[in-house]
Design the sequence.
């Protein structure tokens, strides 16, 4: 993990999106995730929140449709390893929080429970932990699997993911995200602060 942060140019470079190899797509996506969760927290109405993201014909959408829409809304198209890592991290985050829902009303219920038990900063930190693990997987999995079997590689990266999530679990306490206007430079600065703090854990 220390070498990973060094490959990004250090936490100050990688964390603020100035690395050429990773850390840019995650900032853009984390801001969209923060905006979505914040909007839902303010209204408490998942239908209104989804409508604001551009989702139509909501009543005929499955939970899978909703998750896929939010992945595209938050992460956009993916053309680089960084883009794909940011996108997959979004999927993992959304599936963790609402993947067990069977209806849009259950999506609303699960999101409400999530925001009652977790701060928005905690959610963003969890996103960054998934993102870092996805970048590592894309950098090293293909080479490792040549020498190890698939099961061993999967076990290794599951251990790495648990390690990352555990190590960064306290970072959210440093950057509260209450009452943030997600369209402003202040939101951009706060998200970069969090990503830098997450990387700094391993530096």
Sequence:
């Amino acid at each position: 993990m220390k070498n990973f942060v060094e490959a990004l140019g250090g936490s100050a470079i990688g964390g603020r999106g100035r690395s050429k190899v990773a850390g840019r797509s995650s900032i853009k996506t984390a801001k969209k995730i923060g905006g979505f969760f914040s909007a839902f927290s303010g209204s408490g109405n998942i239908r209104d929140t989804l409508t604001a993201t551009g989702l139509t014909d909501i009543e005929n959408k499955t939970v899978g449709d909703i998750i896929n829409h939010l992945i595209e809304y938050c992460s956009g198209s993916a053309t680089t390893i960084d883009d794909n890592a940011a996108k997959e991290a979004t999927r993992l985050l959304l599936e963790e929080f609402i993947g067990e829902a069977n209806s849009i009303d259950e999506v609303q219920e699960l999101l409400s429970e999530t925001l009652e038990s977790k701060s928005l900063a905690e959610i963003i930190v969890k996103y960054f932990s998934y993102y870092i693990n996805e970048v590592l997987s894309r950098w090293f999995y293909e080479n490792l699997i040549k020498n190890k079997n698939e099961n061993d590689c999967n076990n290794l990266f599951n251990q790495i993911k648990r390690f990352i999530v555990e190590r960064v679990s306290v970072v959210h306490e440093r950057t509260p995200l209450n009452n943030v206007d997600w369209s402003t430079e202040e939101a951009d600065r706060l998200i970069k602060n969090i990503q830098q703090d997450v990387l700094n854990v391993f530096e």
The chain has a mean pLDDT of 92. Residues 30 and 96 are 16 Å apart (CA to CA).
